[in-house]
Write the structure tokens for this entry.
Amino acid sequence: MTRCPWAQSPDDYHDYHDREWGVPVDDDRAIFEHLTLEAFQAGLSWITILRKREAFRRAFAGFDPLRVAAFDEADQERLMSDAGIVRNRQKIAAAIGNASAFLALQAEYGSAAQFFWGFVDGIVVHHQWQRQEDVPATTPLSERISKELKKRGFRFVGPTIVYAHLQATGIVNDHLLSCPRHAELAALSGPWPRRASSSSLAEPPNGAA
């Protein structure tokens, strides 16, 4: 496969790029997971987070926002002692606070998926990038969503983090035109979210609900 340049190396990126990155996600637990991991990535490489992903899942109760929102000081100290994750006190506190904000988002919109996908009317934005250097770090869309999230009390949700979230969860298709995944994802039909979906983060697009 002629993958996007960022996914050529190391090999750890291959499965993530080939099966997950850019696949539309409308499962709220998966959305919360992506948002949390992308916040932890701030200042770090994504490969660092990807290699610690299973440890993060164990540490953060499978990214169940209801359970994470109930974490107390003892949980924060437990997380600070967990060598399997990124031990950053500000990011840990933000993740717990974001869980509460996430629950409020669900209560307001019916689901977090409805909130995020509402910005694009449920239709994936398929970009037509020819070169990796053409892909932006932020867009007016990510700036708008970032502002809305901050209004609702989310932290570590700047426009760059939000744009990475949009790319990862398939709201935008930022695979290069030369990458076979661009056409494969472009073939998926909308609109999103799909109420019956139970998205698996590792599910290939031809198995999407």
User: Anything to note?
Assistant: The chain has eleven helices and two strands. The beta strands are 125-126, 172-173.
